[in-house]
Amino acid sequence: MKVAVVILNWNGKQLLEQFLPSVVQFSPEATVYVADNASTDDSVSFVSANFPNVSIVVNATNTGYAGGYNEALHSIDADIYALINSDIEVTENWLQPIIKTFLAEPKTAIVQPKILDFKNKEYFEYAGAAGGYIDQYGYPFCRGRIFDTLEKDYGQYDSNQEIFWASGACFCIRSSVYKELKGFDASFFAHQEEIDLCWRASNKGYTIQYLFESKVYHVGGATLQQGNPKKTELNFRNSLLMLVKNLPKNKLYTVLFIRMILDGVAGIKFLCEGQPKHLIAVLKAHLSFYKHFSENYKKRGNFQQFQYFFTKNIVIKYFLNKIRFFNDLNLNK
To answer: Of 9, 62, 72, 276, which sits most exposed with the smallest number of CB within 10 A?
Structure first.
């Protein structure tokens, strides 16, 4: 199998200085690429001068995570794309379980390793942890992370597991499936495009796997910090657009109506917590959602998964029932 490890970079010279060495050292099975998203710093010249064995792809403009990878991958020939953030530290032999799984399981289209926190390595990291799920209303959560609660890794998720979505922080996909699905939805720009792609893959009958034997460490928030209102806007908007594209038709409008109410509650919560910029971000997300509803409805495929969710309402379970850990959830209820 030809494997391409592709790091999307935007003005990230310092991150490349810190993390690219581990990727080069521990990825002998792959060709390593830096896909530069129209950086204005000297990232490209730094990589060229210091890592002659790393291939460089230069995008014409910065079209975000989704568009950036779509553009770069057009020129990369490989059977497997391992897409990793520039703030990821990989570990020795991290690719071997991934390659083995793709070889042995033809229906497995997407794989995620265990993602731990670079700054606190005993804990799972927010963006992916031990694999992702969504609730009935499209709110994402992970094994090892529900909303802002991160679990300590003591081996509770040391089993390979089929999951609903894999994290874009370290996202491994068959190139054939990536092309079949026409890649990420570039209109998302950033955030939740990987969930949308995984959902579309599931609707085609493919599976997504979490592999605990493969381990990486993620800094997180290197592009947009967790408290950035733009991040809030993109997450709320893209989650709604994802529902429009992928929900079963008989559930679409009921789920969207309830989701709008829940988003309104979240906006009021932001206001009560003294975060009016995040309330404005939710309002902007909804305005953008209305504006782009029709074009995203037209993206719907011929089949949407009926049982797509893994717990009915993670918001109620977390904020009202005070459930903080994945293994305490009663899934499908």
So the answer is: 276
Classify 319 as helix, strand or coil: helix
Q: Do residues 167 and 115 lie in contact, with contact meaning Cβ atoms separated by under 8 Å?
A: yes
pLDDT at 283: 97
66 Cβ contact list (under 8 Å, min separation 6): 183, 184, 185, 186, 187, 188, 189, 190, 193
The CA distance from 292 to 4, in Å, is 34
- The per-residue pLDDT for range 261-309, each reduced to its tens digit, is 999 999 999 999 999 999 999 999 999 999 999 999 999 977 777 678 8
Q: Is 178 helix (H, G, I), strand (E, B) or coil?
A: helix
Token pair, residue 179, equals 């092309």
Burial class (CB in 10 A: 0-12, 13-18, 19+), 71: buried
Alpha carbons 212 and 68: distance in angstroms, whole number:
28
Count CB-CB contacts under 10 A for residue 287.
12
Say which residue, 251 or 115, is predicted with more confidence.
Answer: 115
Give Rg (Cα) of the chain: 19
Place of tokens 């919560």: 269
**How is residue 150 written in tokens?**
């991160």
Taking the whole predicted model, whether its pTM rises above 0.85 is answered as yes
Per-residue confidence band for 102, with pLDDT thresholds at 50, 70 and 90: very high
Rounded to the nearest 5°, which phi and psi values hold at 69?
A: -70, -40
